[in-house]
Amino acid sequence: MKTRAGLVVVLCFLLLGSYVYAQFGDKPAELSTIKVRDDLFVVYNDLVPGNTTVLVTSQGLILVDNKFEIDFDNLMAQIRKISNQPIRYVVNTHYHGDHSGGNSKMQAQNVQVVASERARRKMVETNQPGAPNVTLEDRVRLYLGGKRVEVHYFGRAHTDGDVVAYFPDHRVVAMGDMYTVGDGLPPLVDYPGGGSTREWPRSLDGALTLDFDTAIPGHGKPAMKGDLAKYRDNLTALGRRVIEMQSKKASRAEIEKELRSRFGFQDFHIQLALDGMLAELR
Ligand SMILES: [Zn+2]
After folding, report:
1. How far apart are CA 8 and CA 24, in angstroms?
2. What is the pLDDT of residues 164-184, one digit of tens each?
3. Which end of the chain is more exposed for a tag (fewer CB within 10 A), N or C?
4. What 8-state DSSP symbol labels residue 261?
């Protein structure tokens, strides 16, 4: 029951809202590498932790997200199969420990960690080690070895500090948990972390203005721009449905049933998001 264990880890992490996941993550995830372009890879695993994107340049590597701390050795082993260049930058797409848990170990190797100022604030508030060194409000560009990455903030979504990493020359965008792919991974609105069901589709509209073909989700296999547009449509439908049901005085239990059957919500989605969603979409 690997999947179930993963969900428990996510649930514990999100409910306790900090770095304590390590006490629940009993062993590192099994990792594999997916080639997206000749110099762009995703270090992938089933469900949890999050994907790590790796851009190879002649002057070092740029990563997007770095999994849990417990995954550090396995992550480095996968990266070393791709390249022997030093890691120069890591972008954290948001504050969750399954995307930023490797920060301290990477900073010890002089890696610069980049995130939104909001995500950094959340990491500091929740006593996560490895707070980012560089922060952005709307946008920052990283140039290395003749290649470039743009980091964009488009507004509230999964949390209030999600950023996406855009590789314009590759026509690829790494979305973090603003986009998740697969059964058991419907949109998860982290209300304690500032997430918003109402604003998430608009933030995705911002990402969809970028010129790209491939969308790398925070969890799950890489997909296409059209798939991301469908995910946005599903989120819009989700918000509308909750508003509609509340206007017809549906009970909490009826709305929960609808979210489970029609939108694939799991126990931890209900626990983390339902009350916040009912309050936001009243
Ligand atoms: Zn997350």
Report:
1. 8
2. 999 999 999 999 999 999 988
3. N
4. H
Say what the pTM is: 0.91
Q: How far is the CA of 133 from the centre of ligand 1 (A)?
A: 20
- What torsion do the CA atoms of 202, 208, 210, 214 make, to the nearest 10 degrees? 140
> Distance between CA 165 and CA 82 in Å, rounded?
20
Task: Please give the distance, rounded to the nearest whole angstrom, from the Cα atom of residue 200 to the centre of ligand 1.
Answer: 14
94 CA → ligand 1 middle, Å: 7
Residues of the chain with pLDDT under 50: 1-9, 11-12, 15-24
Find the 82 Cα to ligand 1 centroid distance in Å. 26
Residue 265 belongs to domain spanning: 2-280
* Peptide linkage before 49 cis (omega within 30 of 0): yes
Measured in angstroms, how far is the CA atom of residue 193 from the centroid of ligand 1?
A: 10
Distance from the alpha carbon of residue 87 to the mean position of ligand 1, in angstroms: 23
Q: Give the count of domains, the chain.
A: 1
Selection from 259, 264, 261 nearest residue 276 by Cα: 259
Tokens representing 229 are 């547009």
**How far away, in angstroms, is 158 Cα from ligand 1 center?**
7
Assign residue 187 the CATH number of its domain: 3.60.15.10
* Residues 106, 87 contacting (CB under 8 angstroms): yes
Cα(97) to centroid of ligand 1, in Å? 8
Give the Å distance between the CA of 218 and the centre of ligand 1.
8
